[in-house]
């Protein structure tokens, strides 16, 4: 069964959201998150403040990204159930990072500079750090849900949560290094190296290694 194509209205909504967020992150990066108002973001994007709030109910959400969580969950769900949990989750993290940074040739990939700017804003802004933590909890649950039968029973769910939490902590280390190096090393490579350092070669497929 073929995947449903987005309607014109959905494509327009997605493009409006992308433009608003791009201008917001640019302004926050140039002038500081606290110094920029939603009205200024709206003016830069050529829309009304009401339109901004329709797409982003809070100012913090202008910096948060929904796409990574969806990509990661999809790749976890599609991973072989015979693989260890940390390999299923870790491989999904690497694959999602590859897609988001354009390493898979996907023309719709999020720009690396944009990702770096979002990451730096989340790390340096107290209000955004709190929202980022909330989003990490949500991502963890999305991954556990995507593991399906491997996370149904209480003990299985506990193991899935532990494995997912460990993988996300490892990814955070890779993201921090990526930001510090200003993206000099490819993000998927850093995540693969961090996973190997944490869990050993068995957790990362051969095509994900250096």
Description of the molecule:
- This protein has 210 residues and is mostly helical.
- It has 9 helices and no strands.
- The protein has helices at residues 8-31, 38-45, 49-55, 67-78, 85-100, 112-124, 126-146, 154-180, 187-199.
- Helix 1 (8-31) packs across helix 2 (38-45) and helix 4 (67-78) packs parallel to helix 7 (126-146).
- The longest helix is centred in the C-terminal third of the chain and has 27 residues, at 154-180.
- The chain starts with 7 loop residues before the first helix and ends in an 11-residue tail after the last helix.
- The relative contact order is 0.11.
Number of strands: 0
* Strand residues, percent: under 5%
Radius of gyration: 18 Å
How would you describe the shape? globular
Distance between the ends = 36 Å
Question: What's the mean pLDDT score?
Answer: 89
| Continuous helix count | 9
Uncertain segments: none
Could you give a short account of the major beta sheet?
Answer: none
One letter per element, helices H and strands E, the order comes to HHHHHHHHH
Helix content: 55-70%
Question: Structural class, judged by helices and strands?
Answer: mainly alpha
């Amino acid at each position: 069964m073929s995947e449903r194509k987005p309607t014109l209205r959905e494509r327009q909504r997605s493009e409006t959201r992308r433009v608003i967020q791009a201008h917001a992150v640019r302004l926050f990066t140039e002038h500081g998150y606290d110094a920029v108002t939603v009205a200024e973001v709206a003016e830069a994007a050529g829309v009304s403040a009401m339109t901004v709030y329709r797409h982003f109910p809070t100012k913090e959400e202008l910096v948060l990204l929904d796409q990574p969580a969806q990509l990661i969950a999809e790749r976890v769900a599609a991973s072989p159930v015979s693989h260890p949990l940390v390999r299923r989750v870790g491989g999904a993290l690497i694959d999602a990072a590859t897609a988001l940074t354009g390493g898979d040739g996907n023309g719709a990939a999020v720009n690396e500079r944009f990702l770096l700017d979002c990451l730096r804003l989340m790390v340096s802004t107290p209000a955004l750090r709190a929202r980022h933590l909330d989003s990490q909890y949500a991502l963890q649950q999305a991954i556990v849900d995507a593991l399906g039968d491997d996370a149904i029973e209480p003990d299985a769910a506990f193991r899935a949560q532990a494995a997912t939490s460990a993988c996300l902590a490892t990814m955070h280390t890779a993201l921090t290094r990526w930001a510090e190096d200003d993206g000099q090393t490819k993000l998927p490579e850093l995540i693969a190296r961090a996973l190997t350092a944490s869990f050993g070669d068995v957790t990362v497929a051969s095509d994900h290694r250096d």
